[in-house]
Every structure is written in C-alpha cells, then in structure tokens.
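Sharing a chain and its predicted structure for anyone who wants a worked example. Both blocks are below, sequence first, tokens second.
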Amino acid sequence: MSEYLKPVRHPQGDLFVCDITDVILKDDMASMEHPFYSLSKKPDREPRRYEDGKGNWIEFRPSIKGLPTIYDKDLIIYAISQLIAGMKEGRPISKRVRIDPYAFLIFTERGVGGRDYDALSDSLDRIDGTRFRTNVLFEGTRTDEWMGIIDGARMATDERTGKIKSIELSLSEMVLDTVREMKVLTLHRDYFRLSRPIERRIYEIARKAVGQDEGWTFLMATLHKKSGSKGTLREFRRQMKPIIEGDFLPDYMIVFDEEKDKVTFVNRNTMPKDRERQEEAVHAVRSALSSDVYQLARQAAPGWDTYALADEFSSWWSGIGRPVTDADALFLKFCKTWFEKKGYP
C-alpha cells in the first residue's frame, strides 16, 4: 500500500475534520454530504447551489480567486485539531487560533520551502473570500443567513526575509459550534499522504459513510455526485480505477461490482476499537447527574425533553475527554446554551 502514498515527511498525531455542509445543513441535506471544497487545482469560480426538495437550499459563492480547494481545507483541519487538543487539556475554546506555519507544514506532510509558505497566502484568500448563503424555514418564516468558514485572518511576515512567521485565523461561530458539539471525525494520519484530490475526497466519503461499521455501498453514479468531480461519470470511473486496484485507501478497501456498477467500502478494522469505551464514558457522565437537576433543566430549556438533553450532554462531554467535576452545573449551562441557540422545540 505504501508505494501508492507520498513518503512520510514527519510523524504526527491524530487529526480531525468537519464537513462544512454538515455544519450548515440539516436533515436530508446533511446526509447528502454535498462537496464544498474544490477538487480542481485551477481556480474554480463557479457558484454552487444545492436544494433538498423541501424548500431548503444553500449557495456557495466563491471569490475571484475561486472556491477553497481540498488542500486549503488542511488549515481548517489543523485549527480544529488544535482546539480539540486544547479542550482535552482543559483550555477554553478560543475563536482565534494561532498557527505556526512551520508546524502546520510538518503536520500536513508538506515541504518547508519558500513555495510551500507562499501557498498559505493563496489558501487564506480562497477560504476567507468564499461566502455561503442559506435559508432556514421555521413555522412559515424564512430566514436567510450569510456566513463564511472564517471571519477573518491575520498573517505576520518577516520584512527582511519575506517569510511568513505566523497565521491567526478567526473562526466563524458555525465552525466553533461544531467543535463544541464534537461533530468531528478522526482521520487516518495517512490522509495527508494521499496524492490526488479525488483520493482525499473518496476517503472522506468512506470515513463518514462507514465509520466503524463493516461497510457501505454506493452506486458509482451516486459516488460521482458526492465526490464533487466536475468530469463525466466515465471520467470518474477512470479516476476510481487506480484507487480500487491500488488498494491503498486508509482504513477502507474498495470492492467494485462492475455488473451492478456499485462500489462497496469495506472496513479494514484499522481504527481504534473505542466504541465500548465511549459508551462507558457516556454512562459515567449521565450517572453523575443528580435526580434534582432535571427540574432545573426544564427551567433552563423550557419545552425540551430534559432526559433527551441529558443524553446529548453526556455524549458531548464524554467526547471532550475531560473528567466531570460538577455535572449538574455543566448540564444546566448546556441546557441554557441549547435553548438560546434552538429556542422552543
């Protein structure tokens, strides 16, 4: 398998990813996993619009420099990874994430030459320049929202050498909410060793669809749509052939049924078997709540099923990986925040 992957430049730890459309979209649209990041190395300036058939839609509006590429996404992955690492160490979530360019280039298995540093500026232009517009339908009222992945960025460059010294991202509330609610997936460390954009995208689709289950099957035409490939279905089949035959995708092998034109991702069982441990952690958090807290929770989140909220809270807090020192107070704060964001059910 390793001969199909880029050589390991630097050792690294776990990393995390969120799909921006999963953050914004709800219900059926979220499960469609529409691609946002471009797979093209050339500027992709074409606006994209997706609808779910129920009146909900989202538009991606790129800047003159085009949509962010799947390589630009590395900056967001890195920022999220830093935030989650900080949460597990007890540090509060910060909207501003400071990035050491050298550490980032090492983390993402890139070179550390001048061109590698220069490419970071272009990535920031594309990420910051692209905006979203989406609508929310609730009780006969449509609310339109305009937003982005980041609210801004700052770069410090050495005046003498022209080398980037630091980058600071101001993440949007949308991304921060994803981190707070732990709506992220851990990626295999070989993700950054995948050579082509389509390989990264196919791995992401498999990671989200299969998870730690045994497998998942797609029609080739469905996989083509999910991938975001701008080529024809015939061209997509040609792109998939070396991925299938090479059998180098991290975590999952691919079985292709040519007669039925179906692709099945099969779990290699290389991911840590942590489901049982996670369930125990969730139970421990839930058990720490007192019987009296549920009445107070009803006041903090009127109209909501407080026992269901307790399950949400327990899953969220156990995912952070920190011990519960005052479960009742944390749960009440969680309920209050939940109601402020979502209102009445």
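Comments welcome. The chain has three domains: 2-193, 197-273, 278-342.
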